Amino acid sequence: MHVLVTGGAGYIGSHTCLELLNAGHQVTVVDNLSNSSEESLQRVSTLTGKEIAFFRIDLLDQLGLDAVFRDNQFDAVIHFAALKAVGESVAKPLAYYQNNITGTVNLCDATQRHHVSHFVFSSSATVYGIPRSLPLTETSATPMEEVTNPYGRSKLMLEYILKDWQASQPQTNVALLRYFNPVGAHESGQIGEDPNGIPNNLLPYISQVAVGKLERVGVFGCDYETPDGTGVRDYIHVVDLARGHVLALDKLAENPGVVTYNLGTGNGYSVLEIVAAFERACGKKIPFTFLDRRPGDIAVCYADPSLAKTELGWVAERGIDEMCTDGWRWQSQNPSGYTTIAGS
Length: 344
Ligand code: NAD
Ligand code: UD1
Prior knowledge:
The protein is α/β, with parallel strands linked by helices. The protein is built from eleven helices and 13 strands.
């Protein structure tokens, strides 16, 4: 297939471009580079020996987007492009709704006008709010009032928007992929997560402590009802996640209408277990301090990934040690992310 990947220069997008190319697909990327570098795509090309067509376009630029659709015949769209910082979304809700919601509506409009029938959307486990029971299945409740921030609400609203859109034109197929906590990097150490400023998420924070850029990890809460009192999450290797997108395209080719899948491992690890796993991976002590709970955090979250196994033939193959080892390889070889000068 010829696949348009929006946000393809970003963390999950770049890993997915690599898996798509390795699976024999043709890839075109649209990205405004607001949270990424074109270097990631150059590295994917080098790793795969294949070209990626790249257009630096904002999804809010309808004319620019239309020109890319007009000049290419896409078979599918994988839509990663979004703003994703939870705290920033609270401070700038309009920027988040404009970018994530208007950007997606523009993309759907172009997808429809140019008769592209397959659409894969990056959703998040955040749509489940406070879990009623665990593990979370695709039929677990997704109560809007429990999603604690505009970023999360944009994801849940977009799930509804995409379902309404698909219902209006049944020849379109939509996959809503609910990611749990993507971490790690490609085993080459050439591509990985390159957050702007101080990381908000646990793994990038730990790796920056390990590489000496930050002093110590603040552990948000030690009094949750979990075995060691710290929050438990379903961390998933980004390469497993990327492979899930390739399999989702195969599923959409069967014309299923709307499908929704959890992409997680089904295993939960606490913050302290992650710190310990990262210490094993990097061979260093990771200093940490207990802090208050972070507002909006839940105690425990992990997936039931069995639907993706049954319907996509997808299972996460990489465990927590591989996630940390691969994440550390990327961080230690690229201490300043994509701005690191080769050999320095
Ligand atoms: P990322 O920031 O690395 O990638 C997003 C990319 O989209 C960036 O390259 C950015 O420049 C681009 N972009 C943003 N707005 C754009 C616009 N208006 N026009 C064109 N390009 C634009 O983030 P990521 O971690 O790779 O996340 C990818 C997707 O997965 C996002 O939709 C995110 O919400 C979702 N998601 C991520 C996580 C996670 O933990 N990383 C978890 C659940 C869901
Ligand atoms: C966060 C987002 C969520 C998003 C998800 C994607 C928040 C509130 N939620 O989820 O919307 O979909 O990323 O991966 O930001 N932790 C620390 N110290 C840190 C950072 C995190 O102790 O410096 C803890 C958290 O309290 C949590 C765990 O580590 O228990 C994971 O946190 P994080 O990586 O931010 O992911 P989530 O909170 O699960």
